[in-house]
Specification:
Length: 429
C-alpha cells in the first residue's frame, strides 16, 4: 500500500521558514499550542489557524510562493513544483476601460490554486515527522496533494466522491496517489479521510476544508501577490467557496497587511457558491450567524465547490463570520450563469477554465446589476479547463471535417465568420 520514501526534493533548505515561529491557535476558544499533526483544537475540537509570528517583510516582486517562506507555516524543506507567483491578467476585452482582473490560479503546477496549500502543508508534514498524507477531495486537492507527496516521498491516500471528473482522478493516480472513490458526496469522503488520520496519528490530514491549518495559511500569498501588483487599491476579491478556506486565508493576509499599515482598508470579500449546493450563501441570505449542512442534492456543474458540509457545518460558519466581519458578500450563482461565464472567459479572453473557476465572473455580473463593487476587482480563476473538459459548453461542438486539399481561402473565410458569430458581452450583462 505505502510507497517507499524518497529523498525530499530540492529545495532551499537554507532559507528561513515560518514553522519555527508558528502557533496553532483556535479561533473558537482561543487555545493555542505548538505545531503538530493533530488537526483540531484539543480543548474544543474546533478547526485551527496556523499563525506565524514574524514581521510582515514582503518581497517587492515574488517569483515563487517560497519568496514568502518566512511568513508561511512551512518547514525547512521547500517541497516545490514552481507554485505561486501567478499572473494577474486584466480582462480588457470583456471589460474595456474597467479595472477587472483574473488571478490566474489555473497556472499553478497541477492546474489549480490547491498547489499553494499542498506545497506548504506537505512541507510542514515532513518537518513534523509525518509518515503519510491523506486528503478528501472533489478532485483538485487530490491532484495537488498527491503531486507534492510524491515530491516528498510520502505515501498518499486520496478519497473522493464517485463522479469526480476523470481528469482529476488520473492526475492523482499519475502522481502515485492511492485513490479511493466513495459512493456519496464530498462529506462522505471527508469523514473517511478523518478516520484514516485518527487511526494513525503519524499521518497528516491534508483535506483542504479547515482540516489542515497549514493549507489555509498558504492562501494569504494570493493577497500578497495581488497587493504587490495593485498596491492598496484592491477594492474587491471574488473567490469560489466550498467550505471557504481559500477566502479565509486571503482575508487573513489582508488583515496582516492592514495591521502592518500597508493598506488602509480591507478589500470587499465576495464568496461564491453554486446555487445547487450553497449552505453558506443560504445562511448569509437569511442573516444567520451559523451555517447548517445542505441536505439536498449536490449535482450542480461546479463540482469543485459542491460541499454540503455534512458533519462539519462549523467550517461554513467560520467562513460566514469572516466575511460578515469584513462586510463582504456571499452569493450563489446558477449553472446557467456559470456556463455563460465559462463561455465568455474562453471565447473572449482566451481563458478557458473549469466551471468553479468561472463562478466569480458570474457572481460579479450578478452583483453589479444592483450594487457596483469597488475597483479594482480581482476574480480568482481557480482551475484549468482540462480539469473538467466535459463540462465545457463547447465540448459537444463539432470540428470541421474537410478535404485537406480544399481551397485554403475557404478555411480562412470560415474562421472569420466563426469569430464574428461570437457575441461580445457587455460589462455587467
Ligand atoms: Zn478550541
Amino acid at each position: 500500500m505505502a510507497r517507499s520514501p524518497e529523498t525530499p526534493s530540492p529545495a532551499s533548505s537554507s532559507q528561513p521558514h515560518g514553522l519555527a515561529a508558528t502557533r496553532l491557535v483556535c479561533p473558537w476558544c482561543g487555545a493555542s499550542r505548538s505545531p503538530d499533526l493533530y488537526p483540531w483544537c484539543r480543548r474544543c475540537r474546533g478547526s485551527l489557524s496556523a499563525e506565524v509570528d514574524r514581521p510582515l517583510d514582503l518581497p517587492a516582486v515574488a517569483r515563487s510562493l517560497w519568496d514568502f517562506a518566512p511568513l508561511l507555516p512551512a518547514g525547512p524543506v521547500a517541497v516545490s513544483l514552481g507554485e505561486g507567483a501567478t499572473p494577474l491578467l486584466p480582462l480588457h476585452t470583456l471589460f474595456p476601460g474597467d479595472e477587472v482582473y483574473a488571478k490566474a490560479e489555473w497556472m499553478n503546477p497541477t492546474g489549480s490554486f490547491k498547489d499553494r496549500g499542498a506545497a506548504v502543508a506537505v512541507s510542514a508534514a515532513l518537518a513534523l515527522g509525518a509518515e503519510g498524507v491523506v486528503c478528501a477531495s472533489t478532485g483538485n486537492n487530490g491532484a495537488a496533494v498527491s503531486a507534492y507527496a510524491a515530491r516528498a516521498g510520502l505515501p498518499c491516500i486520496v478519497t473522493l466522491p464517485v463522479g469526480t471528473p476523470p481528469g482529476k482522478i488520473v492526475q492523482a493516480r499519475a502522481h502515485g496517489g492511492m485513490v479511493v472513490e466513495i459512493p456519496g458526496t464530498f462529506s462522505d469522503a471527508y469523514q473517511l479521510a478523518e478516520r484514516i488520520q485518527e487511526a494513525d496519528g503519524r499521518w497528516a490530514n491534508l483535506t483542504s476544508t479547515f482540516a489542515n491549518p497549514y493549507m489555509t495559511a498558504a492562501h494569504a500569498t494570493i493577497t500578497y501577490e495581488a497587493w504587490a501588483a495593485l498596491g492598496e487599491r484592491v477594492g474587491t476579491i471574488i473567490v469560489p467557496i466550498g467550505a471557504g478556506p481559500m477566502l479565509v486565508g486571503i482575508l487573513d493576509g489582508a488583515d496582516r497587511l492592514l495591521h502592518a499599515e500597508r493598506i488602509s482598508r480591507l478589500p470587499i470579500p465576495v464568496g461564491v457558491q453554486a446555487a445547487g449546493c450553497a449552505p453558506i450563501a443560504r445562511a448569509y441570505a437569511r442573516g444567520e450567524s451559523e451555517v447548517t449542512a445542505w441536505e439536498g442534492d449536490c449535482s450542480g456543474i461546479a463540482g469543485s465547490i459542491n460541499d454540503p458540509l455534512r458533519g462539519y457545518p462549523a467550517d461554513g460558519t467560520r467562513t460566514l463570520r469572516a466575511v460578515q466581519q469584513a462586510r463582504g458578500v456571499i452569493h450563489a450563482v446558477s449553472d446557467a450563469e456559470i456556463v455563460q461565464a465559462m463561455r465568455d472567459l474562453g471565447r473572449v479572453e482566451g481563458i478557458a477554465c473549469e466551471p468553479t473557476a468561472a463562478a466569480p465572473l458570474a457572481a460579479f455580473r450578478a452583483l453589479e446589476r444592483t450594487n457596483p463593487l469597488p475597483r479594482p476587482v480581482v476574480l480568482i480563476v481557480s482551475g484549468h479547463v482540462l480539469k473538467d473538459p466535459m463540462s465545457q459548453p463547447e465540448c459537444l461542438a463539432l470540428s470541421l471535417t474537410a478535404d485537406p486539399t480544399a481551397d485554403p481561402r475557404e478555411f480562412i473565410a470560415a474562421a472569420k465568420t466563426h469569430r464574428r458569430s461570437i457575441p461580445h458581452p457587455k460589462c455587467g450583462t
